[in-house]
Write a structure and sequence with these properties.
By secondary structure, the protein is α/β, with parallel strands linked by helices. The chain is 49% helix and 13% strand. Bound molecules: nicotinamide-adenine-dinucleotide.
Amino acid sequence: MEFSGKTAFVTGAANGIGLGLCRALARSGVNLAMSDIEAAQLEAARRELSSFNVRTRAIPLDVSDADAFARAADEAEAEFGNIHFLCNNAGITMKPAPLWEITPQQWEWIIGVNVHGVINGIRALVPRMKAHGEAGHIVNTASIGGLQVNPKLRNGAYAMTKYAVVAASEALALDLEGSHLGVSVLCPAIVATTLYASAQRRPERLGGPFGRPSPEYAKAFHAVGIPPDDVGRRVLDAVARNEFFIFTHAEPREWIEARHQRLMAGFDALDRYQARKDGE
Ligand SMILES: NC(=O)c1ccc[n+]([C@@H]2O[C@H](COP(=O)([O-])OP(=O)(O)OC[C@H]3O[C@@H](n4cnc5c(N)ncnc54)[C@H](O)[C@@H]3O)[C@@H](O)[C@H]2O)c1
């Protein structure tokens, strides 16, 4: 995969993993259409990235708004021409809660950003990336929580949205099989970002900002999280090698194996059921 001189559209680019992705892309000579709901932080990030000898444009966007995403894609194309890389990365998290305690408004927000945001990105940009015929890649940011529900964190609603991002990525990879476009799904464990401040970024049309980021939550993220720049470098290496699942932490391997064993136990139970039926 050639990077230099190409263009990437990155959502959630003002902070955290999105900014780490932008830094890695810029280091490889990729021009950047950077989008985020936080316009002021986005402009600050764009200014930083413009020092890397690549072209940059800040495009404020609420990814949960399909029409706004289509307009943002038009703006990026008008500025840069063909878009080669799409990083559907913007996402939010909520305070862990049992599913029955989550309000319809909270569901709308988390599904709106984490699921519709990815769908809107795919709808707005993949047809254009297919049409121009130049090699490119789509990276959807899910989470290790998109492959198992963490029994300690109990963040089931978040995990539900990230399972959806994994499924969307698997489906997209099949839809684009044999084409000039590759697909990856990024599944990190904890990264030292500003995800703890998600409530401050709820779009106005979904209720607006609420609550305050808890300092303990922020501290916990930064105490155990890996640097977002490491994630950016890892992603570029994986894209260059066309890897589908992009992991950033080795520790969750055991959780994933345990989940796989639970799935297999379901098939073992079916075998026993069938044997009982055959014996009747
Ligand atoms: N930090 C982690 O530990 C971790 C782990 C696994 C997955 N992730 C995922 O990584 C992605 C990036 O998150 P992060 O950890 O860098 O957090 P972050 O909060 O630092 O960055 C997310 C960015 O998305 C933006 N954003 C939020 N709502 C938006 C909206 N409606 N439209 C456009 N932009 C919006 C925010 O303003 C922010 O700049 C998310 O999808 C998150 O779920 C994070």
